[in-house]
Every structure is written in C-alpha cells, then in structure tokens.
Specification:
Oligomer: single chain
Radius of gyration: 14 Å
Largest sheet: 6 strands, mixed
Strand content: 35-45%
Strand order of the largest sheet: 1-2-3-4-6-5
Helix content: 10-25%
Number of strands: 6
Shape: globular
C-alpha cells in the first residue's frame, strides 16, 4: 500500500499471508499459541514514512488502512527491540501488539521480537 499527500508519496506498508506451518512460525521461539497459527495470518513486513510525515500519525493510518481489506484474524510483525532506543517497540504496543516470542530470521540478523494483535 502506498500513501500520498498532495500527489506526493509519503509512506508505504506491505505484508504477506502466512499459513499454518510457515517458516515464520517455525523460527518463532517459543512456539506461538495455536490460536495464532491454526489459520492464516497477515505478516506485516515493513512500514516506511518519509521524514516530513513522521510523528504525525501517518504510519498508524497506513498500518490501519493496509488491514482494512484483509480477512485474516491476526496480524503479526517482527521488530528490533533496540530500534529507536525502544521507541518503535513501544509504539507497536500502543497500537495493540503484544510480544509472543523472538526470532532470528538469518544468522546475520539481530534477534527480533515477534508481536501479534487482532487484525481489526
């Protein structure tokens, strides 16, 4: 999803559907509760907002808009708990996400916090 203001791009978000048994869940430790993994979920991969629109609520609006057409009951994301000195993680908690585990998608990546919430 792309967001625009006055005809100019200001931000984006994208995600994919993950199914039961997906490697996303296999790499999450501890193993997530079955209620999260037994049905497909949305995995939010990235949200980006251009500098002039940061701290304006734009990221939240993009996030929420990207979920309006999704049918999956849950949305999950991975975040670096150190990003922004912990401010990004705290922001996701304000948006209703809860920590359910950790994941290290590749040996070169930091250990990420896996978070989840209802998609609506």
């Amino acid at each position: 999803m792309l967001a625009y203001a006055d005809g100019q791009p200001v931000g984006y978000a994208y995600g994919t559907t993950i199914e039961h048994g997906d490697r996303y869940w296999q790499r999450t430790n501890p193993e997530p509760a079955a209620k999260y993994t037994e049905r497909a979920a949305v995995s939010l991969k990235e949200i980006g907002v251009r500098t002039p629109w940061r701290k304006t609520g734009t990221a939240r609006r993009i996030h929420d808009s990207s979920l309006t057409t999704r049918e999956e009951p849950y949305v999950t994301l991975m975040g670096n708990p150190a990003a922004g000195d912990g401010k990004v993680h705290a922001l996701y908690k304000l948006w209703g996400y809860a920590d359910i585990g950790q994941s290290q998608p590749s040996p070169a990546s930091p250990v990420l916090t896996v978070m989840i919430r209802a998609s609506r």
